[in-house]
Every structure is written in structure tokens, then in C-alpha cells.
């Protein structure tokens, strides 16, 4: 196994040097448990980047790791299951010793393959040691119908047989993903998608920790942590998972979508790569939109509404603003409520609708988006007297907007009004900011007034006029 270059030349390079510093082998499960307990005791965060699981998923996961259990995460798509599994790498030791040149990452003081056992006996304290970084000790496999036993466990290598070795020789075996993850973590995404005969091949690995290849049993004391993800609907006796494999997982942990609006917003801020300015009020609209989708009877909740939908929606809104800036020369590029209209058409394919909603998908999305704008505006502008803005628009100051209308034109017809300062303040802005931000705030208030039937709005081609 190839090793990352040493971070420091002071690390032992032979078995003799390793023994001299008092190094003792430790199983992966003990390593995860000890490092997790140390992080919890020190008050650190063992789960960087994980949002919304603090009181639900993470305590269960921590108990499973402390107990030394293999586990499976059950949840709908886009709930952060894979992201959570990848953070396990941070609980491994940063560097761990392995026999240099060995096919598996075997500990120098505990070789397991016949070739390494032979080398250790021949070289003794001179057996060379390489150091493996923790990033190389995590292996991930997406379960697909074409996954074979050879991919996961291994197969007889015909090249080695052709060299003169017999089929009974354990050195003719080409190891699969699981043995190659020795002293590491193996993650299988969408576990029930594995064919049943492939699931059977994992039984011995998870219980007896040995592998069987084409009728040849090779007693390898593998040291691996098996983790997996699955959809709850498939992970049942009636689904696509065999009962003996379920029984071998020590813990089943349910994940979920963010429970609070603030968590949804935090997730968007953390994950979205925005190409233009997007105000907090528009991010809140997107977060509310996703939450309404998850509660809608028109949307198939068995497939879920991924957190990636919210991230992609916010990035689409930012892209619409950047496109307008390129067309009009507006600077800086700042998103406005008009840009939210690009979300339903672009992202409709990321959702699955219930039977009977065919042909009404866009109507459902637009209705929920309008509802989300109204809810966000009602929460942020509650108690604010918007009557002066209504009167100004009605008394001959209509406001025109559109996906190619620059911010200056949006604000051009409005007189100076104290209420605009109040609106900006409620949206965490000031009127001294560039015109794009003020136009975003004003348009947000105008859209709220339209949705609450205090103003009218006429739409012509790619423009809309509030009046």
C-alpha cells in the first residue's frame, strides 16, 4: 500500500525503532473510541460541518462508536449521511505505521498475510515501516447492481496462477475493497442495492472477520469498521436487505432533515458556492421553500427533498443575479426576489411528485414559492408600517423590475422615504449600501405587499410593474 510522505523524519522507520518507542498495536474500533472520548472530554467538536444532528443523530452515533459497533445510517436522500460517514476519518490517528511494500496496510507488529508473516520472520527488527495518513484509511463504495464479490472481497488472480502458483496458494488471491481497507473504515452507500448474493459475501467479514474466495477460506483477522447508508424503505425484511446482514450491524441510526429553519439556513450558508451577493432574506425564502416542499402532499415524501435542493436553489438565484450584471453592467451583482423565479423551472427535475400531479408540477412549485416569500417577509417585516411605500407607489411612482432590469431602474421612480431605511434595517442592511442591496430590500417589501393584496402587479414579457 502506498503511503503519504512522512510529515516528519523523526517517525520510526523499522520495526526495531517502533518497538523502542513503546508503540503498541491498537484496533481501529479502539482508536475511534479513544479519540472520540478524548475530543468530548476536551470540549472539541468531533463532527465539523455537521448541522442539525447535535441532539438526535450524533449522540446515537457516539454511543455506537464507544460500544465498538458497526452501524448503518438510515435516511432519505440528501440528509447528510455520506458527509457524516466521511467525518469519521477525523477520529483516526493522523499517522499509523504499516509494513512498507505490503499489499494490505498491515501493522508491522501484527502481520496477517502469509507474505508479510514470512517477511517479518526473515527481517526481524529490520522490517521497514511506512506511515499511512488517516485520509488513506477510509474506503467508500456506492452499491450498484453490477458490484461483484471480487470488487468487495477479492478473487483468484489468473496472472499469479499463470506464474506457476497453485489455486490453493493464498498468494494467488487479488484482494477486494474490504481486505484492502484493513485497519481502516469501509463505507457502503445504499447497501440494499447490493444483490443478495453480494450481501451474503459480507456476512463472514462482519462476524468472523475472515474472507472466502471461490470456496477457499483464508483466515485473515481483518481489522475493519463496516459502516453503511440505506433508505429506510429498503432496509426492512420486505425490502432488499437480507436479515442476517441486518443482524450483524450493531446499531441502526436514523438521520433526518434539519428540524429548524435556522439549521436549514446555516446549511445553505455552509454548503452553497455563491457567485453573487444573496441577502439573508432570500436565503430564508429558499429555506422556507424547501421546508414547504417537504410538507406538501403533492411531493413524494418517500423520495424526500434533499438538502442539496436548497443549496442548488440558492446557487441558481446567485447565478441569475450574475447573469443580469453581465447583461446590464450592474455592479456588484446582487440577487433580488425576481431571481427566485428561476428556481422552479431549473430544479423541478430534482423532485418527485405524487401520482395525479402530472402537468401541475410548476403550478405547485410557484404556489409554494409565493407562500415562502410571504412567510419570510411576514417574519422579517412584522409590525413595520409599510403604508407610506404603498401610498408612494399608488400616487404615481410605479416600480419596474425584471431579470434584466438593473437596480438603479428599480429605485429610480421612488421618492426618498424614511420607511426604506426601516425596511433595509429589518433585512440587515443600510441605505448606504450599493443600489443592488437596497433594490433587493425594496423589491422584497413590494412583493410582500402584492402577495397580501395591498398592491397590484402587472407582468409583461420579462418585466413586472408594481402599481
- Average pLDDT value? 89
Radius of gyration: 29 Å
What characteristic shape results from the CA principal axes?
A: elongated
- Structural class of the secondary structure composition? alpha/beta
* Low-confidence parts: none
Q: How far is the N terminus from the C terminus?
A: 70 Å
CATH architecture of the largest domain: 3-Layer(aba) Sandwich
The CATH class of the largest domain is identified as: Alpha Beta
Strand tally: 14
CATH superfamily of the largest domain: P-loop containing nucleotide triphosphate hydrolases
List the SSEs and their pairings.
Layout (H helix, E strand, L loop, with lengths): L14 H6 L7 H15 L14 H11 L3 E4 L6 H6 L8 E5 L14 H10 L5 E5 L4 E5 L6 H4 L1 E3 L1 H5 L10 E3 L1 H4 L3 E6 L6 H5 L2 H5 L3 E3 L2 E3 L5 E7 L12 H6 L2 E4 L6 H11 L8 H16 L11 H22 L13 H6 L13 H20 L6 H8 L4 E4 L4 H6 L5 H9 L8 H17 L5 E4 L2 E4 L1
Parallel strand pairs: 1-10, 1-11, 4-7, 7-10
Antiparallel strand pairs: 2-3, 5-6, 8-9, 12-14, 13-14
Report on the structure:
The structure is a single chain. The model has no long low-confidence stretch (mean pLDDT 89). Helix content is 41%, strand content 13%. Helix 13 (280-295) crosses helix 14. Strand 13 (457-460) and strand 14 form a beta hairpin. The radius of gyration is 29 Å and the shape is elongated. It has 2 domains: 15-254, P-loop containing nucleotide triphosphate hydrolases (Rossmann fold, 3-Layer(aba) Sandwich), CATH 3.40.50.300; 261-466, no CATH class. 38% of the residues are buried. The chain has a 5-stranded parallel β-sheet. A 3-stranded antiparallel β-sheet has the order 12-14-13. By secondary structure, the protein is an alpha/beta fold. It has 20 helices and 14 strands.
Amino acid at each position: 500500500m502506498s503511503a503519504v510522505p512522512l510529515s516528519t523524519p523523526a517517525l520510526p522507520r523499522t520495526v526495531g525503532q517502533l518497538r523502542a518507542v513503546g508503540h503498541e498495536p491498537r484496533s481501529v474500533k479502539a482508536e475511534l473510541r479513544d479519540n472520540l472520548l478524548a475530543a468530548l472530554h476536551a470540549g472539541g467538536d468531533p463532527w465539523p460541518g455537521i448541522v442539525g444532528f447535535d441532539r438526535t443523530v450524533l449522540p446515537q452515533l457516539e454511543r455506537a462508536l464507544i460500544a465498538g459497533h458497526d452501524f448503518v445510517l438510515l435516511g432519505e436522500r440528501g440528509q447528510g449521511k455520506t458527509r457524516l460517514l466521511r467525518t469519521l476519518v477525523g477520529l483516526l490517528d493522523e499517522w499509523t505505521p504499516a509494513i512498507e511494500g505490503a499489499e494490505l496496510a498491515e501493522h508491522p507488529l501484527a502481520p496477517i498475510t502469509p507474505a508479510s508473516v514470512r517477511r517479518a520472520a526473515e527481517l526481524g527488527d529490520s522490517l521497514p515501516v511506512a506511515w499511512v495518513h488517516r485520509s488513506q484509511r477510509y474506503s467508500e463504495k456506492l452499491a450498484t447492481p453490477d458490484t461483484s464479490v471480487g470488487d468487495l472481497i477479492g478473487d483468484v488472480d489468473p496472472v499469479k496462477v499463470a506464474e506457476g502458483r497453485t489455486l490453493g496458494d493464498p498468494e494467488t488471491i487479488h484482494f477486494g475493497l474490504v481486505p484492502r481497507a484493513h485497519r481502516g473504515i469501509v463505507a457502503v452507500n445504499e447497501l440494499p442495492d447490493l444483490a443478495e448474493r453480494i450481501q451474503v459475501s459480507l456476512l463472514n467479514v462482519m462476524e468472523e472477520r475472515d474472507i472466502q474466495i471461490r470456496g477457499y477460506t483464508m483466515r485473515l483477522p481483518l481489522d475493519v469498521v463496516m459502516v453503511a447508508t440505506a433508505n429506510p424503505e429498503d432496509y426492512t425484511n420486505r425490502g432488499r436487505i437480507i436479515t442476517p446482514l441486518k443482524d450483524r450491524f450493531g446499531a441502526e441510526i436514523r438521520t433526518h432533515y434539519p428540524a429548524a429553519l435556522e439549521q436549514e439556513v446555516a446549511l445553505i450558508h455552509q454548503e452553497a458556492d455563491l457567485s453573487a451577493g444573496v441577502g439573508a432574506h432570500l436565503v430564508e425564502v429558499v429555506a422556507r421553500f424547501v421546508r414547504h416542499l417537504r410538507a406538501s402532499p403533492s411531493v413524494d415524501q418517500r423520495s424526500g427533498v434533499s438538502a442539496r435542493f436548497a443549496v442548488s436553489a440558492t446557487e441558481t438565484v446567485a447565478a441569475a443575479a450574475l447573469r443580469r450584471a453581465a447583461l446590464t453592467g450592474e455592479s456588484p451583482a446582487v440577487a433580488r426576489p425576481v431571481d427566485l423565479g428561476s428556481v422552479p423551472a431549473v430544479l423541478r427535475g430534482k423532485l418527485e411528485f405524487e401520482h395525479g400531479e402530472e402537468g401541475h408540477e410548476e403550478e405547485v412549485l410557484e404556489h409554494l414559492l409565493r407562500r415562502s416569500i410571504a412567510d419570510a417577509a411576514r417574519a422579517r417585516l412584522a409590525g413595520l408600517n409599510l403604508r407610506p411605500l404603498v401610498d408612494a407607489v399608488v400616487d404615481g411612482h410605479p416600480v419596474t423590475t425584471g431579470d434584466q432590469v438593473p437596480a438603479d431602474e428599480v429605485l429610480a421612480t421612488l421618492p426618498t422615504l424614511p420607511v426604506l431605511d426601516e425596511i433595509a434595517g429589518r433585512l440587515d442592511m443600510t441605505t448606504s449600501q450599493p443600489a443592488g442591496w437596497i433594490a433587493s430590500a425594496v423589491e422584497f417589501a413590494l412583493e410582500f405587499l402584492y402577495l397580501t393584496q395591498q398592491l397590484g402587479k402587472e407582468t409583461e414579457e420579462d418585466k413586472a410593474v408594481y402599481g
